Automatic annotation (TrEMBL):
<keyword id="KW-0067">ATP-binding</keyword>
<dbReference type="InterPro" id="IPR027417">
    <property type="entry name" value="P-loop_NTPase"/>
</dbReference>
<keyword id="KW-1278">Translocase</keyword>
<comment type="similarity">
    <text>Belongs to the ABC transporter superfamily.</text>
</comment>
<feature type="domain" description="ABC transporter">
    <location>
        <begin position="3"/>
        <end position="211"/>
    </location>
</feature>
<dbReference type="GO" id="GO:0016887">
    <property type="term" value="F:ATP hydrolysis activity"/>
</dbReference>
<keyword id="KW-0547">Nucleotide-binding</keyword>
<dbReference type="Pfam" id="PF00005">
    <property type="entry name" value="ABC_tran"/>
</dbReference>
<keyword id="KW-0472">Membrane</keyword>
<dbReference type="InterPro" id="IPR005895">
    <property type="entry name" value="ABC_transptr_haem_export_CcmA"/>
</dbReference>
<keyword id="KW-0201">Cytochrome c-type biogenesis</keyword>
<keyword id="KW-0813">Transport</keyword>
<dbReference type="GO" id="GO:0005524">
    <property type="term" value="F:ATP binding"/>
</dbReference>
<dbReference type="GO" id="GO:0022857">
    <property type="term" value="F:transmembrane transporter activity"/>
</dbReference>
<dbReference type="GO" id="GO:0017004">
    <property type="term" value="P:cytochrome complex assembly"/>
</dbReference>
<dbReference type="InterPro" id="IPR003593">
    <property type="entry name" value="AAA+_ATPase"/>
</dbReference>
<protein>
    <submittedName>
        <fullName>Heme ABC exporter ATP-binding protein CcmA</fullName>
    </submittedName>
</protein>
Length: 215
């Protein structure tokens, strides 16, 4: 299984934000995007997730069940800045929705809603409306979404924002476990996640294109 991006370029507004970005990730490998605010990390993640069309270039996933290749967005989890949960629904209802909506990609097992809540340190609160939870608890439950439906690629935009130190470690451990099982991770982060087998890509924003850094 592998994910390959070749010569990706993206435009935001009038200007190119990055050009000629290429990377190759095999099973168990992670790409960490770094760079200052506005440097293009979220944009690149959204291109890989299929949420934004690149100006140029391709990104393709090859796996056992898709030897001919498919867009990684079809078999990825995308955790953006927002949690993608409904405040009025309970935690269990939100996670049940995502489990049914996303389905299970491949043969690997996913966790039950209670086990996923337990894995993020929040067992016993799944009956509460999502909107009642603290910001950090909401982020943990957003992460539990990744565990209720198996997807080989995790695309994570600032996954540990709003989290305390213990949750930081817990989520880093869950990401590490996903990699150990042969998953692929792309993450934008301002904090080190302490992951093994990690490539780093430093984003430079519009100025990088002008300076020829990506050219
Ligand atoms: N729709 C848009 N039109 C024009 N410019 C945009 C649009 N969306 C984003 N941008 C610009 O593109 C640049 C990259 O934004 P992006 O969200 O990818 O950065 P980032 O590296 O993820 O930043 P942060 O660390 O703050 O999350 C920013 O300068 C932003 O203002």
């Amino acid at each position: 299984m592998h994910l390959t991006a070749e010569n990706l370029a993206a435009r935001r507004g009038e200007d190119l934000l990055f050009v000629n970005i290429s990377f190759h990730l095999g099973a168990g490998e992670a790409l960490v995007l770094t760079g200052r605010n506005g440097s293009g990390k979220s944009t690149l993640l959204r291109v890989v997730a299929g949420l934004l069309r690149p100006e140029k270039g391709t990104v393709i996933f090859h796996g056992e069940e898709s030897p001919g290749g498919r867009h990684p967005g079809e078999i990825s989890h995308y955790l953006g800045h927002r949690n993608a949960m409904k405040n009025e629904l309970t935690v269990a209802e939100n996670l049940d929705f995502w489990r049914a909506f996303l389905g299970n990609a491949g043969s690997a097992a996913s966790l039950s809603v209670e086990d996923a809540a337990d894995a993020v340190g929040l067992s016993g609160i799944t009956h509460l409306p999502f909107g009642y939870l603290s910001a950090g608890q909401q982020r943990r439950i957003a992460f539990a979404k990744l565990l209720v439906a198996h997807r080989p690629i995790w695309i994570l935009d600032e996954p540990t924002a709003a989290l305390d130190a213990s949750a930081d470690r817990l989520l880093a451990d869950l990401i590490g476990a996903h990699l150990e099982k042969g998953g692929i991770v792309l993450a934008a982060t301002h904090q080190p996640l302490g992951l093994q087998n990690t490539q780093e890509l430093k984003m430079t924003g519009f100025a990088g294109v002008d300076a020829g850094i990506w050219g």
